[in-house]
Amino acid sequence: TNVSVTSIWLSGNSIGDEGLKALAEALKTNASVTSIDLHFNSIGDEGVKALAEALMTNTSVTSIPLWNNSIDDEGVKAFCVPGIQVAAHGASAYS
């Protein structure tokens, strides 16, 4: 049987911006993941912008907890564009 991963739990792994950029690249071609837990990961605006770009084409991800990262206004703004349908918990961003 073919089993698809639907949730990714990366909390507390300190993946940082570079790790999130790599994950964002993979998400551009993934349609099964719906939730990615990214809290406590030393993520900043640069990583979140890459994630937001990936979510412009990936509509399966609907929940991303982002608590306790280093995301400022610029990172939150990256999620606040038409086309992104995700609840970015901890960044208070919905579109």
UniProtKB/TrEMBL annotation:
Key word Coiled coil present: no
Q: Which positions, given as ranges, span the membrane?
A: none
Instruction: List, alphabetically, the PANTHER family matched.
Output: LEUCINE-RICH REPEAT-CONTAINING PROTEIN, LEUCINE-RICH REPEAT-CONTAINING PROTEIN 34
Which organism's genome codes for this protein?
Cladocopium goreaui
Which Pfam families does the record cross-reference, listed alphabetically?
LRR_6 (PF13516)
Q: Which InterPro entries match?
A: Leu-rich_rpt (IPR001611), LRR-containing_regulator (IPR052201), LRR_dom_sf (IPR032675)
* Keyword terms: Repeat
Highest taxon listed in the record's lineage: Eukaryota
Protein name according to UniProt: Nucleotide-binding oligomerization domain-containing protein 1 (MNod1)
Record keywords: Lyase included? no
